[in-house]
User: What shape does this take?
Amino acid sequence: MADLEIRNLHVSVEDEEILRGVDLEVSKGEIHALMGPNGSGKSTLANVIMGHPAYEVTEGQIVFQGEDITEAEPEERSRMGLFMAFQYPVAIPGVTVAKYLRMVVNAHREAKGEPEIKLRDFRQQTEEAMELVNIPREFSSRYLNDGFSGGEKKRMEVLQLAMLRPQIAVLDETDSGLDIDALRIVAEGVNKFAGPDMGALIITHYQRILHLVKPQKVHVMYKGRIVKEGGPELVGELEEKGYGWITQEVEAAA
Assistant: This one.
């Protein structure tokens, strides 16, 4: 059984069906890429996995660690070990990076029945994580994403990965609009933490991040369904041909 299972998922927003029967499995130790043209439903899937209230699941299930979480609250999913890196992370003026991280770490500890982390231990853990992802210490005293550059926001996402060590990380077009240096930050973070204890689902319509992070499995979404699957060679095929041949295949089979 996979750690994360999406079973025949149908999703609507304001009575408009966006996802039309998505099946997908991701386990720890695996890197998956979900690709497709704009408007195909990729970001909708990411938001539904994390429990965004604007999306209505009309059919199907989301199962994590053998438990049906289709109706679970977003914070419950997070505490269970799901993580999402956003395309456009929200700024929270007045809340420092250190305060935010400590609050999140303690929420996860509470869910496991553990006491709050001691300040000294938290500082040590944060400093080790910052060193691991090459972030200067003064970063922790800044307000969360407030005035951050695109690259700094991505460093913040990777820092959260380092602190929380989720079981499955969903990266929703986190490579969109990044320069090569910021892109490398994201790729290094995924490569560093994906392994036996973490799986990743990278959602993108670009190929460039997949030259830095090598997925074992590639899924292509079109009009709310996964219409093609393959290995890393599929990335090269899409780079060479674009998505036109995928739509032709789907329409020919209809």
Notes: Residues 136 and 242 are 39 Å apart (CA to CA). The chain has one domain: 4-253.
